[in-house]
Amino acid sequence: MNNSFYKRLSIDEAFPRRTFNTSLILSIIILLLSMGRASYQVTMGLAIGMGISLSFFGILWSTVSRFLLMGKKKGGFLFIIIGLSKHFVLGILLFVIFRYVKINSLALLMGISLVLMVILLKVTGIEMVNYVNKKVR
Q1: pLDDT per residue over 121-131, tens digit each?
Q2: CA 40/CA 45 separation, integer angstroms
Q3: What is the 3-state secondary structure (H, E, C) of the chain?
Q4: 52, 59, 42, 16: which is closest to 101 by C-alpha?
Q5: CA 69, chain centre distance (Å)
Q6: Which of 44, 67, 69, 96 could in theory staple to 75 by disulfide, Cβ–Cβ 3.0 to 4.6 A?
């Protein structure tokens, strides 16, 4: 991607908070709809996936914020440790979930991808607004 893309894409400091809040509200709505319409396995898969997605986004958000405050020398080690341990914890968590809980794996995957979809839609919306503003001028 060229440099003009990064100049046009203006993501402010409140973007992670808005993304988290949007994902949380969307998760609650999807779970409420799923509780009334879908089976127990689908609802549990969505709930567990959304919980993993929201908690890992929160961990990433917190880690990046601390990394930027601490600087590269001090924060780099913390960033690496948390980044690696997050995947280790996810592996153990998924093992326990698939071993002891009856869930729909597709619903789990959809729940895990929720925050990523919200980020993609928000960034696409920002880019579209910038494109329209550029054409109007």
Answers
A1: 988 888 888 88
A2: 8
A3: CCHHHHHHCCCCCCHHHHHHHHHHHHHHHHHHHHHHHCCHHHHHHHHHHHHHHHHHHHHHHHHHHHHHHHCHHHHHHHHHHHHHHHHHHHHHHHHHHHHHCCCCHHHHHHHHCHHHHHHHHHHHHHHHHHHHHHHHC
A4: 42
A5: 22
A6: 67
